[in-house]
Amino acid sequence: MSETDTIAGLLFLTRLQKIDLRVSAPQKRKPPNFPSTDPFPFLHALVDSYAFPAKPASDTDPRCNPILADLDMLPENILMNIAAVDILLYEQLEFIEKLKRQLEADPERNRGRKVEAKVYDGQLHGWLELPSIAIDESTRQECWDLDVAFIKDIHRKYGFEWKEL
To answer: Which residues does the UniProt record annotate as the domain Alpha/beta hydrolase fold-3 (predicted)?
Structure first.
């Protein structure tokens, strides 16, 4: 394994990540607090166009559908920030639970791996990009602080200590 392979596999930090491309946007299970009228129906075609040219062949490919990936295929440190009012909620939670089960099934083999998730209640898909007037800024800051702490932890684990400027 080369040095770049090792570095590339250290961390997966995600926000708003689509985990299962096999299920189209309108068919995704909606959380109970999802608006009765979809606020973003015009985005369905865009969401469903990810990996479009390769889509039929990619339905079994974990690179396009991380939900299919085993823990060994993924970076050893995973943090997912999840919006609770999002059609991606259930696939993201299912993915995290699957990975946690794999961690628990073989703790010796998976020693040192981290799989974490934080669900942000009341937040919509894309909430981190909304202007401050539209969301509670302290929630955005909480997410940012969690991400930075996670990254710093991984840096420390591999011998790099972040120095404040």
So the answer is: 44-128
